[in-house]
């Protein structure tokens, strides 16, 4: 690789005396850094040293407590992601800032400025971006189905699209295979030759030597050495600066002697993505799994962990294990620690202890004292840096999170340990500790299997290495045969045939698979249920489709449908609005004072203005309580629920104030005496919102905020504005539903409306919108509303007791939840295979 010899005197960016603390704990203290154009500046340090925090300050994801940022001579106290992008600053995060519920294309559209896609067809731009990083996926694939490596490549593609002047690469090669690493290094050379300044964060010394011209080392949030020429610093000096001491050999001694009996036998193992794999291990041996990323390593690890069914035999300690036995007996350290390795909402202590609860038992209860003692000893042995045992695990650096996963593994006392990329994102000092602990576990007689994209790691750690290609074992290496060059050569020259026999799209998923996993599969299912139910009722009673009944169904659907659209907005954010029912009731009560018989036009306009003002105020208060006072969505809107209901009864203790008949007739006007104009308006509004949700930046940002708030903020989504505006718009849609309810009731009644809260949630969930946010459709909510009204209407025609209404609603929600989750899970398994 050609390295730039440029030594410009003026930095393109300077960070001056940056300070940053979290909950009073200093993360950065008086840190300064100069970044020069056309150079790679390596930023090194242990996990928790402050590297990622400093770069998050530089790219606008965090605001510093003190100091300044200078970009091209312009001074800033702080940046936000939008400003940073405008200034030509981009970052490839250690944990990719991708939105799992959005597609590949939508991730690119929400993260990149519109100018990236102007002037050329969007598909052409996307194909070019994905092609440059050799990311072989379909733009319509949902990102949650991508591997960790593919998510990193997508993150790199996003950075490429910006043509940045300053690019931060935070552990970019950790999950990548050798081919992708070479591609990235070529891109780094290309970028620097064009004048781009690159800050490169890594724990791999070889990469520093190969890429960097300058190096800065952080230790404990302070600068240990700044702006040194890479030629003036030896590897030993860098390691000593990083950990504060000289390190011995990284790898412990391998097995020598011991029992010749096998404690692990894998015989002709086949399953999703793997076929006919056989190998064995003796006590004290560590088995390594090598190969180009995506050739069955993850599938083999998940199968051995009991997370996937298998054919063939797995024998541990002389006992043949079923998938269920493996699930109970093994401890699996997955490569994707955020989504599979840790429970991010739990504390450090809870994550470490969760697999070892039986060790803390004292009679029928658990001993908190014993738990704290054992967990503390294990975390101390791994040198985990955390504010406290009860700090959220999400607050730790990536490397420290990985140590918590290792602590949980050790505490669980498993019969089989499976470590997939165990040192990904872990600093050199902690890496040696992890290797030592893995070796100790193996020496105690527990089989250990390590899958890693780092062939040098497998060479130094493992006693036996199997190389996989396309889900099949191509060679087994032992002793002196375990060499990095041989593993890589075997993997890339293998001629094994693919296990996939079905022709698939570029991403390995068919169009049908993408549809079944997409947002519109529930819509089609609901449509089929509605038509099937209608056909059944019509067969029982031929008056079902007469004009009066059809008009009644569509009118009732309009009232519920408008409110359900508003509920959809907040559910897409991962929130909920319990106040919509009482709000609708309060609005009808307000209307009863202004739309009574003989009311003047001025009074009616004043009533409409009051209803709109109350709607906006309700949504605004809900949003402010959630975003600024940190109420949970259910707590904030439930408080509003009671407040609005109370106001309704203050205004109308008893029903009164008849709505003018002419007003009701206008609101319920029908075409051909069958189709309410309001229902046509509901359809038009649904189509417009659906288009905006899927094709506009507003819709992408709304779903991004619900999919992953932290990552949405990283890509420039203004979360507070998005959430508050969604609650306000949701309340305005409730106002439209209240107009329909006003016309149907014909009187101000404070007791009406409250049922719309749970009914609207039911309609939205039936339509396929996730309660966790990020995915759903307005079309589904409309059909869910129609189905609920249809079920209520069916009670009369089928002569069923009214209680059946609730039975059928509950049954529909249960069936929908099971069907949606099972179908998506099976499609995921099929794609993985």
TrEMBL record:
InterPro entries: AAA+_ATPase, ABC_carbohydrate_import_ATPase, ABC_transp_permease, ABC_transporter-like_ATP-bd, ABC_transporter-like_CS, P-loop_NTPase. The keyword Transmembrane applies. The chain crosses the membrane at residues 520-539, 551-573, 605-626, 633-651, 671-693, 723-747, 753-772, 779-798, 804-823. It holds the Pfam family ABC_tran. It is found in: Cell membrane. Residues 13-245, 259-495 form the ABC transporter domain. The keyword Nucleus does not apply. PANTHER family: CARBOHYDRATE TRANSPORT ATP-BINDING PROTEIN MG119-RELATED (PTHR43790), GALACTOFURANOSE TRANSPORTER ATP-BINDING PROTEIN YTFR (PTHR43790:SF9). This is ATP-binding cassette domain-containing protein. It comes from Leucobacter weissii.
